[in-house]
Records
---
Amino acid sequence: MFPHVFFALLSVELFCIASAILFALFLPVGFHLLTLAAAVYLTVAAWRNHDASPGSAGLPPGSLSIARSIAALPDRRYYQEQTRRHGPVFKMAQFHRRVICVTGIERSHKLFRDHASSIGPCPLPFSSEISGGFLRYMNDETYERYGPAFRRALSGPIALSAVNTTRSTTKRQLTLMATDCGKSSEGRGVRPAAYVAEIVHDALAAALFGSTPDSDSYNEMKTLFSVMDEQDLNRRLSRNTKSALADLRSLVEKEVERLQSRSDHGEPACALTELHRTDPQMPDAVCIDNLIFIFKFSTANVPGLLHWILQLLGENPDWIGRIRQERKEATDSRKNDIVNRVIMETLRLAQSEYLYRTIKSDFEFEGFRFPRGWLIRHCVWESHRDPRIFENAERFDPDRHLLEDFPRQEYSPFGCPHHGCNGVVLTYMIARTFIEELAGYDWIASGDSKPERDFRHWSHWRPGAGFGVILRPVQSESAESAESPRHAERS
Ligand code: HEM
């Protein structure tokens, strides 16, 4: 999964072996000293990681070894396996950082609630470089002002006013995808990443900034965001990102002026107009910076969800037929709606992974010591696979949400109440539009879809780079049975 890392480690290993041989041949004393140093290092490391070492009293079970830390990276089941082995509270290392993992949504919510004063956010470095800090990591005083304003600004009305843009881009991108599939060699299909990225970009640019493909600002904004795309948010902002950020700030400020000068003329709602409606002093520099980074985060999250929808429906084609059939029978109930159920189940099985927090002061929970400076990982993906809550938990079964109303203590893809996701309505709007338009096509998954991730513990899993789809518009009934790709594959 990580060929670059593999070859780097292999080179280091070969270098060590070659050095050892050279020392042994030409400087035997050096060889003995190195052996001694390695033996001391390994003994100290083993002792430090041992449950009986000083300082480890009262800690949860689990290994802090670096080897285990690396083994966790390509293993999607690592945390599930550790939960099975040690119970729902266990410890691990993520390279140099020490982490206590907690499985079970009710348990984690209780932990966050009961020890709120000892737990803080885990800010990524970029947050200190933007006005007021990023919403997720803001201090309580600033959050008190901006948290509720953003919650209101990102609610229903903006999703509603971005529907048309979302639908027309979705139609355009699916048509393009089907055309490109026709051109691809030997039915290998196309990789969906670029197409779903366009859909999400347009939907969110309209919802957050009121920028649609026919707006003057659209192309410039898109170019600047493509520079921001290069930025790894685990690192400090690069010079290019800072320059794009400065240009984006002034572009959005101009957009604010334009929207405010036209506010009497029924301008469609977007987060900028809604923030202003909530508080006439907004959107200020804090709002603008936050919107830019919310855009950056969510244009990474939401395409992931659309990707998983393509893969899970591709693997469970009966559901596509059911979507077409059941959508004919209109319903207003959220969970009775098959499209919503498909989204809920995709979030459960694929898109929700974890929450991280940092421990600000020592405390005890369920008999274990949680030491200051360590991280807490709330294992959401693993909790969503608890067989005591979800029957046949590994199965893609949207109907489980019809039969049972899972409370927030059992099913929680959008975080816990404090700092929970503000983009739920927008996410559902985009995913729903995507599935509705997708229902006009037949598709099969092609290539290797084995999930993969980057060489980082916080990297999200995604369908493999080889994952592709072969997409064709649904034909009439008779033509469909003769020509659909699924039929072709079966025959
Ligand atoms: C697949 C889609 C998405 C998923 C699974 C998701 C999930 C989450 C989760 C789990 C949190 C809580 C993080 C924590 O407590 O550490 C969160 C926070 C947040 N999300 Fe989302 N999100 C998605 C899409 C979006 C979208 C589309 C937006 C807005 C355009 C958005 C805006 C936010 C904001 C602003 C926060 C921080 C809220 C606060 O601290 O008050 N999210 N999201």
Note: The chain has two domains: 4-49, 73-490.
---
Amino acid sequence: MGILEKFSLEGKVALVTGGAGLYGSCIVEGLAEAGATVYLASRNAGNCLKAAEELQRKGLKVIGAELDQSETESIARLKDKIISEQSKIDILVNNAVLRPMKSPEAIEDFDLSMKVNATGVVNVTRIFVEEMKKKKSGAIINISSIYGVLGTDLSLYEETEMSAGAPDYFFHRAGIINLTRYYAAVLGPYNVRVNCISPGGLFNNQDPRFVERYNKKTFLGRMANREDIKGAVVFLASDASPYITGENIMVDGGLSAK
Ligand SMILES: NC(=O)c1ccc[n+]([C@@H]2O[C@H](COP(=O)([O-])OP(=O)(O)OC[C@H]3O[C@@H](n4cnc5c(N)ncnc54)[C@H](O)[C@@H]3O)[C@@H](O)[C@H]2O)c1
């Protein structure tokens, strides 16, 4: 098989949690463009079905489904659905995130954040990985953030209505990077690779003052666009990266290298 064919995801089955969201929708599209059958799932099944229909109209194999990753039964139901429809799961992208905590003072929202962003991620992984172990094959990609590696720069947000974030986000984004290394170790013997991608900010019509300051912090002089994450996800999901596991790839235009 030539190297370009190894990037193909034809015949593979993928799940992207939170696949109707900002980065999730880019990831779903990238995996489907590479040939995978992709399930996109989050709490609002209607949104997922609508997002899937849009991509189906482009000829992509995308299926919308419901998932609340804070509930074990919901995760198990989705796993049963995918296995009954496809007989396997090759690729899991842990992308979903909930941002309930709006300020450092809102400690009452911390537990809910952990329920989804910590316990939920481990539970989704725990349940889906059983199928990968049976087949002795799989790729898991966790989505973190530059804020899993770096602290925040408060000057970016000055004079804007934007929030500089809350402590739970920095806590679980860093956690998911080292969780990646843990699972890479314990799943290596089953030929399941586990990697992480830490993207930078996706342009979403933020306050122009923020955008201008943010752009200056990157080597490439811009925020991420909808295409920027696709190549890294497809690479890590595919047979083009068979010896890469336990890695965290920064997809941030050089921001963290500056
Ligand atoms: N947007 C950015 O600029 C940015 C920057 C760096 C990293 N990231 C990372 O990208 C990933 C996605 O972030 P986003 O900004 O696209 O988020 P988003 O808010 O646009 O989407 C998050 C998705 O997760 C889903 N979700 C929330 N709670 C859930 C639950 N209990 N069960 C299942 N699904 C649930 C939501 O419904 C939504 O579909 C996260 O890992 C985030 O840290 C985003």
Note: The chain has one domain: 3-152+166-204+225-257.
